[in-house]
Amino acid sequence: MQNYDAIVIGGGLGGLVAGAKLAKEGKQVLLLEQHNVPGGCATTFKRNEFTMEVGLHEMDGLYDETDPKQRIFKDLGVFENVEFLKLPEFYRFKNHRVDVVVPDDAEQAIELLTNQFPEEAKGIKKFFRKIFAIRKEANRTVPLWCRRWKFDILMPIFPAIFPHLAFNSYATLGKYLDSIIDNEDLKLILAANVGYYHDDPYSMSLIYFSVAQGGYYKGGTYIKGGSQKLSDYLAKVIKDNGGEILLRHLVTGIIVENNKAVGVNYKENRKNAIHIMNAHAKVIIANAAIPNVVDMLPEKNKQAKKVKNLQKACSLITIYFGFNKEPKALGNKHYSTFVFDDSINTLQDMPANFRGNFADRNYVFVDYSQIESELAPAGKSVGVICTIDYLSDWENLSSEEYKAKKSQVAQIYREKLEKLIPGIDKEIGWCEVATPKTIKRYTLNPHGTVYGYAQIPKQAGPFRTRIKSPVKGLYFASAWTNPGGGFTAAIMSGWLCANEVIGSINI
Ligand SMILES: Cc1cc2nc3c(=O)[nH]c(=O)nc-3n(C[C@H](O)[C@H](O)[C@H](O)COP(=O)(O)OP(=O)(O)OC[C@H]3O[C@@H](n4cnc5c(N)ncnc54)[C@H](O)[C@@H]3O)c2cc1C
């Protein structure tokens, strides 16, 4: 029986970074991934000559020297092996009243928005001051949130050292914007991309929003050739350092002895595979969704139950397009365009819109032809339309009904895209819809969520699920744990997890 230092369940970004760091530190790592490629949401797939980007629209923070990814990527050699492309702006916001391009630089954004909304100058400045103050404190404290004992020791003096975090722990984005800004369009502009984190500004943790949004206002990034390049590179780091990766292998159980996680049961992920294998390790790191991990524990080890029933985040629906002509050749000028429906007048209208008809739902169009993405041959390009969605929109349908509904949705969004960029419809060479059900199938994430537990104040920041689970020897590294969902946060979770494992256990 092979014994490892660490077994990683799942090859999403959190699992890959944790595995890569541990392998690089000389630990024996086994990573088991149920899909046939590593990466989870950070993958690509081929359709004819088009490389479709599954998840990444933009990654935040890479151009901020205080961003934790700087250190992580340097340590793992990412910068020498993966190419990052700086995006031209944050996003364009468009509704039937305003059409504005928000720069990815705070000073420029303040100037532009102040010119457009001069009566709101004070509120605009306050908004940017606040998000950067929170981001600064959060980047210093995230490692502490993961360690309960250190955090508990600091608790009494926390407000004195980290006032912005302490006094905004329960704040939501919506309420905060209401308190500093009157103009509803301006609030919509500032919160246009809230769907990158959550589906309702009035339950969105101000802390989490600020940390990530502050990073985007330092410049957004895309990965040349697609996010699969990053995932493949991290997998290579594991293998080059003596680790093993078994793709198409599904973990079915966690072995617990004397109250400590000591191994996993797994099998090949193919139809009719019944042979269950097992492997043992000093620590088990779960990149798989926490609610599923709890179900993998033996019945009597359900002390992790309390983390199982927390509120889960929303999912997304994506319409993938392969274009025979670049959208920029048809006059589109922006990388991300958020298009808001005419029925949206205030931030309060957003949650109902995300649960309403697809025909009226706000969406973002991402045009990869605006950068040298290398996702398609010269002169051609790919793009996506993406919006918030829920598994419940797709459950209880026969396979015929499911297919028919996907075609209807594709048609709706093709028409919307044609309205946004006239002449584009006849240039569509490939169109395919991925629903929350698709995401669930490829990641096994409950509800098809891509952000783990919802970033509501009581589940965000210092209150988010710890990296060290209540079961000895079992750790989490994913969007479900600290700090949360998205590329940056999943990468950080893997890094923090690996360091916690190295630091607290002599493996
Ligand atoms: C359409 C879309 C757009 C997005 N856009 C952005 C964006 O622009 N910017 C951004 O920052 N983030 C974006 N995200 C979110 C981001 O991709 C995710 O939050 C992040 O990648 C999640 O990483 P993770 O480590 O939690 O793992 P996941 O990606 O959830 O992967 C988990 C992995 O574990 C494997 N697994 C699960 N259970 C088992 C098991 N029992 N045995 C073996 N393997 C198992 C799965 O197969 C999967 O590979 C987007 C996501 C999607 C889907």
Structural class: alpha/beta
Uncertain spans, ≥5 residues at pLDDT below 50? Answer: none
Rg for CA atoms: 22 Å
Q: Look up the CATH topology of the domain at 3-56 and 226-310 and 456-504.
A: FAD/NAD(P)-binding domain
What percent of residues adopt helix (DSSP H or I)? 25-40%
**Which small molecules are bound?**
flavin-adenine dinucleotide
Mass-distribution shape: globular
Q: Main sheet, how many strands, which sense, barrel?
A: 7 strands, mixed
DSSP helix count?
17
Distance between the termini: 18 Å
Based on the structure given, which CATH architecture of the domain at 3-56 and 226-310 and 456-504 is correct? 3-Layer(bba) Sandwich
Number of DSSP strands? Answer: 18
SS strand fraction: 15-25%
CATH class of the domain at 3-56 and 226-310 and 456-504: Alpha Beta
CATH superfamily of the domain at 3-56 and 226-310 and 456-504: FAD/NAD(P)-binding domain
What is the typical, i.e. mean, pLDDT? Answer: 94
